[in-house]
């Protein structure tokens, strides 16, 4: 961050300069997704009804990916977008610059870039989700970054209004992590996203991404039938979630030959996909 010329420190305060961020993107080791299943269920068990989907879906996305490379933020954002849509939640994929700052030392490392792009089949940048209705920002793959991973495995899912953000814009905002990290996000211009989406690396398998979103939503919906979680889900503000729980009832969740999930509901001896069930709902 450039310093203002001629600015003097205020009396009695230390004049600690803000260290320019290191560029960690591309050189750090993202490792593999790792989520302790017991911890994930314990977290779900603590969620308030409003968070059953807005926190539950990104947690479940991580839970279903053990051993996968953690730096799959772009694909994961589109998978989650599809899953949220099945529950009637509008989720926008957003590209962001990310600087992770250690507030104890002042050390800062840049991970998400201000100029996201593909190099070959590798995405250089970072992506999250913005939920316009609830003003919530989600960074589902924050654990890919080593200093963040050292503090917590959990995804970021935060009401942006608590950070002073009321609408998605170019405004930088910071999300505290642990007792010494600040995750500083700067939204990237939305006009860049279409070019990213049209890159063949992503565009050629969007059908698989959509199906992965349906599988994710199906898997979480099945879990939400557990007594404690069901009670919370039915108390949530998400009417489509209530209706889907009612429609699938206690039907078994099975895999078809392609390993996609189907519910064995009455009248469908071979099972039916959740997106087909959701298509019968109004709105």
Short description:
With 283 residues, the protein is an alpha+beta fold.
List keywords for this structure.
two-stranded antiparallel sheet; 11 helices; 19% strand; 283 residues; disordered N terminus
Protein described:
By secondary structure, the chain is α+β, with helices and mostly antiparallel strands. The chain has eleven helices and twelve strands. Strands 1, 2, 3, 6, 7, 8, 9 and 10 form an eight-stranded mixed beta sheet that branches. The longest helix is centred in the C-terminal third of the chain and has 18 residues, at 206-223. The relative contact order is 0.15. The model is unreliable at 1-19 (pLDDT under 50).
